[in-house]
């Protein structure tokens, strides 16, 4: 089922890329991951996530990836490239099919996702995903009745926790998994 969702997204991207002049494309068929698949999961681990995809986050991430550099300070090192990426991404992210899909993903967290324990691995040093956004999401999930666990790594960049603190990261994952059984 996840493969089918990915194929739908790929088809959507191809439609947009081949027909940029279109303002409305046919909606892809709605397909949710079957609850049986989600129900079989014992817990969820989120590393440096989640965050809403904004032009600001996207432009920093894209610039960092293109330049092969960390996201921290990328706007200061490459201000023109970051601003250009943000300018280019803003209308793309606002395209109805893309914004609808992003909305569906966020709605799924509140409607479809089963109430299963969630472990959040994050850092205040994350220059790509605002830590406050992860904290807000954790609170929203806790309000849904989701058991929320978290570990904040000091001085660790976006998705660098395992690389920077491998032993602590492994211990945190193992402790979370042990608590699930």
TrEMBL record:
One of its GO terms (cellular component) is nuclear outer membrane. It is a single-pass membrane protein. It is found in: Nucleus outer membrane. InterPro entries: AB_hydrolase_fold, DUF829_TMEM53. Transmembrane segments: none annotated. It comes from the Eukaryota. Keywords: Membrane, Nucleus, Transmembrane, Transmembrane helix. It holds the Pfam family DUF829. Belongs to the TMEM53 family. PANTHER family: TRANSMEMBRANE PROTEIN 53. This is Uncharacterized protein. It comes from Coccomyxa viridis.
